[in-house]
Every structure is written in structure tokens, then in C-alpha cells.
């Protein structure tokens, strides 16, 4: 099947090309994001392969359909960037990779927690300048703290187990109770109680209407002063406007972000020679108790192998009309 692959980086090309030795699809790689301006690149392609910052609104989906597309293959788990009603109306099948790096994402969340707590970035820079003072590097022991996990799918469950290993009490908030978490001793509570009692809060919810800006000024007001907030899920879970005020007031004592609400034109790109035009992001980067990574929590060899294999398998299964139900977005 001839597939237009958008948002293609060198690593995408490498892993997809290697995996395609088994599937033998015709992959054509495009570096730009898919949007209303670039959709014409997919003319006469029966399928497109896209990533998290490609924009598939009604206009784009309509253009793809008119050009002959029948399949949208997401090489990610989230699908908030796709107008699903429009795709359904136009007869386009949308498939995804439901789980490719749950351990990698959970481990990255722990990395942010430890780096923020023990001020590893600041310590590293000091030592590089031959400054061996430890003034200002005071951390806290994670053992005995209360850890709040919002979202207990595969990633949230793995992270809960890791944090229990540190000796944390784990509180969870989710619309659906995960029996595996209950068996582990995780306590499900209301989000209000989670906010009020947690020393560290980590977000692992999908982005949808119900979860958009679930962290806002009202939510922050209910949290402990000095709370640590971690987001390795989707940027839209947090109202970015409240973060600067939260940091300035001390309500947020530590902030670790691997995703950002307006990351589409920023993340995955080298903008080192430019002035960042996003005022909120620029302000966040000025705080010493903030660590931001560029949507790299998923970025492991295992994940890229799994993404490539499942994506190409989805395309093959679409051709054979034998798609796995869990991989189809409805």
C-alpha cells in the first residue's frame, strides 16, 4: 500500500524502513507536519501515516478523502488531533498504536521527579564550572510521601508500582478503576482529595473534552503548597496560563513537563537560532525549578521498534480487512 508518512525525522525513516522489510509497503516520507497547507502532498495516496503534532481537522480530513485516502494510520496512542466524526462521515478508517512504550514513559516521569527533587540539572552545570558548593541543592526524601497518579492505564499502573517501590503511598484518580492497581494497594479517590493530599502529582490521562484543562487555577488552589507537578501525557491537560502564577506564588514547587499545550510548532524542531515567540513557554524556561523535555518520554529503541511494527501491521491488516479492534479508533 502506498503511504504518505508525515512529520518524518531521521529516526522515523530508519525504524519504519527496517520494519517495512517484512511488510513491503511503499512508504514516501515527508518532513512537514500534515495540515491544511501540506495535505496536497498526499494526493493519490490511499493512506497517510501521522504523528502527534499533525493536524487532521475537518478541512484536512476532507482534503485527504477527496484525494483518495481511505486510511489514517497514527503512529502514536493519542488521537485528539484527529476530527473523528469527520473521518467517520467520509469513510476513512483511523488506526493507532495503543501501547508502545508504557515503561519508557513511566521511567521518564520518574526521571523528571528525581531530577527536579535533587536539582540534578543545576548541580551538573555547577560542577562543569568547577563550583562544588551544594548550597541551594537541598532535596527531599521521596520515601513516605504521597504520590497522586491521574490516569491508571498501562503507564499510570507501571508508574504507581515504581513509586510504591520508593515507599510512597499512592492515590489514584480515574473514571475507571483498574483492578490491578487495587490489588497493588493503590487507593482510588476523588480528584479533590488527590489534589489536597498529594506531594507529587503525575498526569497520565487521555486528552478529551472531560480532561481538557483538568489542571487549572481551581485545581491548583486545592493542592499543597510546593506540590510537584509532572505531565508526560498531553499538554492540553494543563491550562498553561495558570503555571506561571502557580510557580511565582510557590503553589507549584517543582514542574516537570514533557508535553506542552502549544507544542505543535516547537517540539521536535531545532529552534536554537531563533527567538521563541511563545511567551508562556519562555517564561516557564526562566524558572530554576522547572524542567521541560521535548515530548521525548516515549523515545526509546523499544518504543520506536514497536511503533514501526504495529503501524505497518495496521496498514497490512487494513488491506486484508482484518484489523485488530483495539487498534481502530472509533
Give a brief description.
About 35% of the residues lie in helices and about 15% in strands. The protein is an alpha/beta fold.
Describe this structure in words.
The protein has two domains: 2-100 and 300-329, Rossmann fold (3-Layer(aba) Sandwich); 102-292, 3-Layer(aba) Sandwich (Rossmann fold), CATH 3.40.50.720. The chain is 36% helix and 15% strand. It has helices at residues 10-23, 58-66, 84-89, 102-117, 120-128, 154-165, 179-184, 191-197, 217-221, 241-249, 279-284, 301-320, and strands at residues 2-5, 26-29, 47-50, 71-74, 93-95, 146-150, 169-173, 187-188, 200-203, 227-231, 252-257, 290-292, 328-329. The chain has a seven-stranded parallel beta sheet, sandwiched between helices. Strand 10, helix 10 (241-249) and strand 11 form a beta-alpha-beta unit. Helix 1 crosses helix 12 and helix 4 (102-117) packs across helix 6 (154-165). The longest helix has 20 residues, at 301-320. It is globular.
Amino acid at each position: 500500500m502506498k503511504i504518505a508518512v508525515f512529520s518524518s525525522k531521521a529516526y522515523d525513516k530508519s525504524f519504519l524502513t527496517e520494519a517495512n522489510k517484512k511488510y513491503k509497503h511503499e512508504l514516501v516520507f515527508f518532513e512537514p507536519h500534515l495540515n491544511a497547507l501540506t495535505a496536497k502532498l498526499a494526493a493519490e495516496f490511499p493512506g497517510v501515516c501521522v504523528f502527534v503534532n499533525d493536524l487532521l481537522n475537518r478541512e484536512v480530513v476532507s482534503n485527504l478523502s477527496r484525494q483518495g485516502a481511505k486510511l489514517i494510520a497514527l503512529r502514536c496512542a493519542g488521537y485528539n488531533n484527529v476530527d473523528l466524526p469527520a473521518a467517520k462521515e467520509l469513510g476513512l478508517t483511523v488506526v493507532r498504536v495503543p501501547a508502545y512504550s508504557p515503561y519508557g514513559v513511566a521511567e521518564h516521569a520518574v526521571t523528571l521527579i528525581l531530577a527536579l527533587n535533587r536539582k540534578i540539572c543545576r548541580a551538573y552545570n555547577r560542577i562543569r564550572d568547577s563550583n562544588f558548593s551544594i548550597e541551594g541543592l537541598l532535596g527531599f526524601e521521596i520515601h513516605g510521601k504521597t504520590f497522586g497518579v491521574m490516569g491508571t492505564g498501562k503507564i499510570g499502573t507501571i508508574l504507581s508500582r515504581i513509586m510504591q517501590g520508593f515507599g510512597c503511598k499512592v492515590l489514584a484518580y480515574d473514571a475507571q478503576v483498574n483492578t490491578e492497581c487495587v490489588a497493588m494497594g493503590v487507593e482510588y479517590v476523588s480528584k479533590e482529595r488527590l489534589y489536597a493530599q498529594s506531594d507529587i502529582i503525575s498526569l497520565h490521562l487521555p486528552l478529551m473534552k472531560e480532561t481538557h484543562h483538568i489542571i487549572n487555577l481551581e485545581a491548583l488552589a486545592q493542592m499543597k503548597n510546593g506540590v510537584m507537578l509532572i505531565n508526560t501525557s498531553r499538554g492540553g491537560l494543563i491550562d498553561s496560563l495558570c503555571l506561571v502564577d502557580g510557580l511565582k506564588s510557590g503553589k507549584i514547587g517543582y514542574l516537570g513537563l514533557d508535553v506542552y499545550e502549544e507544542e505543535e510548532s516547537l517540539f521536535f524542531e531545532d529552534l536554537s537560532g531563533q527567538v521563541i515567540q511563545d511567551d508562556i513557554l519562555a517564561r516557564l524556561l526562566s524558572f530554576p525549578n522547572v524542567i521541560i523535555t521535548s515530548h521525548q518520554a516515549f523515545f526509546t529503541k523499544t518504543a520506536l521498534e514497536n511503533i514501526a511494527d504495529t503501524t505497518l501491521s495496521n496498514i497490512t491488516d487494513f488491506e486484508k480487512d482484518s484489523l485488530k479492534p483495539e487498534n481502530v479508533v472509533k
